Amino acid sequence: MKELFTDPAHAREWLRVADGGKPDWKRLLDGFAATIAWPAAFYWRELAAAFPEAKVLLIVRDPASWYASMSRTLYRTRPVDTGQEAAVRDQVIEKIVWQGTFSGRFEDRDHAIAVYRTHLDEVRKAVPAGQLVEVEPSHGWEPLCAGLGAGVPDLPFPVANTTDDYLRRAEQAGVLPQR
């Protein structure tokens, strides 16, 4: 998601994909070792097929706290104008996240949480056990490293992109609307 804000060419390519263009995943993700969250998470099936040897990380959180966090961050900073005049990144987010993932119904908490739970279930059913790495961030390094077959670093588990971090960046970027 951060790339949408820092690389206009990358954002334009995601918009092309969001508009139904055939993605060239290897080209679109060239230079990346991994991807997490939107916009790529919306295309998890296609990415798993394009990269069949890749591990699939499934980040699991308590659905109620996930919804509260999404409401306070990404949804709160959603631009009012998401039409053709909106920034390309905002068009991508609107099409993939709010319309694509949540069918324009994110404000319906029960619907959004049901979409989240369905996503978790679908990934668990579709991705082979040896390829799926299910991670709850509060559990730290051990489950992540075990799933990836990597040693546990002698460093604290990173806590990045918290709600406060996100809101601070949004305020600095001038994208925190008063609603």
Automatic annotation (TrEMBL):
Reading the lineage from the top rank, the first entry is Bacteria
InterPro entries, per the entry:
P-loop_NTPase, Sulfotransfer_4
SUPFAM superfamilies xrefs: P-loop containing nucleoside triphosphate hydrolases (SSF52540)
- From the Swiss-Prot or TrEMBL record, give the protein name: Sulfotransferase family protein
Q: Which Pfam families match?
A: Sulfotransfer_4
